[in-house]
Amino acid sequence: MVIIYGMKRNILFVLLAVMVVAVVVLLVFWQLMRQYVPDSVSVAPVTSPTAVAAQGSVCGMEEDRPASAVTLKASQYYAADAVRVYSLNPEAVHTLATAIPGADPKTFAPYDTEYEGYSHDAAHVYWIQCTVSGADPSTFTVLHFKMLQGDMRESGYGKDATHVFYQNKMLDDADPKTFVLVAIDNSHVEPAGGYAKDKNYVYLDDKRVSGADPATFVSYDDPNSILEIAKDKHSVYFGTTTVSGVDAATFSLVLDSSGYSTDYAKDKNHVYHYNTATWTFSVVSDANPKTFVPPAY
Question: Within 151-214, where are the H helices?
Fold first, then answer.
């Protein structure tokens, strides 16, 4: 019995010693890790191109529509009272409104009466509920495009004597004297609202299309649906991305009998399917561009 008791006591001592060593090892490891790993890691915030472009612009916050706000006769999308102008929520014009920062009710007017977009007062230009920093209301003009039914719509682009803007963002280095919407290269001759260009660059919204040639650049946007497909003398573009392997000289959209897009395009070598929801542009296997007929929807 004495021997068994002694053995048990020795085992307990060994286990206790192992536990002490383990604790010491963990403490040493923790101290070593503190030398190499800081208590907190600071990551610089990533600023999007849109946020950078919009710096200087001030936007209002949506709130319940004040009882004092009266809808403007010029446009159903705006209201005003004695001290403020409001941009109205198109889906809730009677209940929700956003005060436009600094807008003067006495001189405020929208550039278009049927659609929300650009507006101005004596001192400033506004895009919906945001100020357009740097825009001169005395020389500001809005660029429009024509819908298939003939309606004129704001493209989102505007310019004054010295600058070009997309919504509330100034386009750096854009030339207002030569800045125009890009024409559509199909049966509709009116420009669409997606691509634009000046003598030096091509733009899609507030972004440049890298490498695009303004002199030969044409859009394939459907007037009722901005597809963001285009080409110049040497390349085809999907959004701002150059599509490799496509023959620009023979490229065209596959349209239906009414002139609408069908989600297909072709060149002399291939038929292509594009999807603006998933942002894919791919070759249709075994399709003959000379005889291809798009599936009926």
Answer: none
